[in-house]
Amino acid sequence: MKVALVNPFWTYEDSIYFGCRQPHLPLELGYSKALLEADGHQVLMLDGQIQKLDNPALADRVAAFSPAMTVVSTAPTYLFWRCAPPELRVPADFLNRLAVRGGRTVAVGPHGSATPAPTLRKLGVDVVVRGECEEVVAELARRDDWRAVPHTAHLYEGKLVGNGGVHASSFVDHPPLNWPSDWIAAHSHHHHRFDDDQVGFGAEVEASRGCPYNCSFCAKIDFRDAYRRRNHDAIIAEIDRLIGQGVGYIYFIDEIFLPQKALLEALVVRDVKFGVQTRIDLWKPELLELLGAAGCVSIEAGLESLTVEGRAMLAKRCRLGTEELAALLVNARRHIPFVQANLIGVVEDDPALVDYWRKHLIDRGVWANEPVPLYPYPSSPSYRELWGEPDDLAWERAHEHYLASFRTFSDIQEKRPRALAELEATCCSH
């Protein structure tokens, strides 16, 4: 079978999107391609941002390939499934331009995972994958009776038909990914890196998936939830291949980069820098020193709140006090050029105390951002505490709540975000 895998040309005007707007490797499509090709399928993989192809050009490329199945992602890469653009205008625009030229159409991503029915209706696709997608995509290509594939949903006479719950990939035995050299050469971005020595291309790698914690704000219930660690040899083989392609910086997309001594020791002897997101309370001083020696130049530490009460409200399950956390962050900064304490706006936090601790950290070289307002994504515990299980209006409800709750938005927002219906009006017309 001929299968097209498409990451559309992402644009973010008037969106609340919290992720990075630079191109990143579409890891979910990379894994899908590896599994499909192992089964003997012919695969065309496209990425609008990396290849500088807009949606009309992507649609024409797919049509020229004449696939029997086209897969499109509703988030820019696995790295941002937990903070995807709520609106579906970008994948809808691509699919509208593709029309009937792509064979069976499949949507993968957080939207179909949490809310399959509105995703099917807005995009007009034949089927959505629920949960982590690569193995389900491979199964859809294997079966003639694709409507019976587990962890998918489709519409029949306008009503939702679902086949089981969300899928959790085995992940641990995923093969090393092999990216086209021209894609790597186009990936100049070093994600979340702020030092001056930015040599070589950038790339994203996944060493583990999921997180053993259940913080209230984290949108991972329907995907990337249970913690799994990938085969060490596969990770190293993938990194070595990237280094051979000229990569000088890797960003580990792991939800929580837990201390992995064998991986760090392997990176010590390799000429590559890297960045991670982690919980600083899980690291001992000697492992922070090894992390720096291995080449880590950027840490996003999920602190979220600078008070015990705020961390409790966010269900952080953190045993350390603010002074101990601050000391670990300052210790990490001794070994790593950029350390950030990520903060979320929490009503339990006293503004004066937040200002004190932010200044304390910044004065010691640790960046602590202005607290970012919390968006209740449908796949987060915070959404379900407010409204229960997501229904067909879950994204609209979360969006309206966010717009009504805050006057000051994230500093990455250029202006006040627009309502979801406005964002989707021109494209989601199926």
Automatic annotation (TrEMBL):
<keyword id="KW-0408">Iron</keyword>
<dbReference type="InterPro" id="IPR023404">
    <property type="entry name" value="rSAM_horseshoe"/>
</dbReference>
<dbReference type="InterPro" id="IPR051198">
    <property type="entry name" value="BchE-like"/>
</dbReference>
<keyword id="KW-0411">Iron-sulfur</keyword>
<protein>
    <submittedName>
        <fullName>B12-binding domain/radical SAM domain-containing protein</fullName>
    </submittedName>
</protein>
<keyword id="KW-0479">Metal-binding</keyword>
<dbReference type="InterPro" id="IPR007197">
    <property type="entry name" value="rSAM"/>
</dbReference>
<dbReference type="InterPro" id="IPR058240">
    <property type="entry name" value="rSAM_sf"/>
</dbReference>
<keyword id="KW-0949">S-adenosyl-L-methionine</keyword>
<dbReference type="InterPro" id="IPR027559">
    <property type="entry name" value="B12_rSAM_oligo"/>
</dbReference>
<dbReference type="InterPro" id="IPR006638">
    <property type="entry name" value="Elp3/MiaA/NifB-like_rSAM"/>
</dbReference>
<feature type="domain" description="Radical SAM core">
    <location>
        <begin position="197"/>
        <end position="413"/>
    </location>
</feature>
<dbReference type="Pfam" id="PF04055">
    <property type="entry name" value="Radical_SAM"/>
</dbReference>
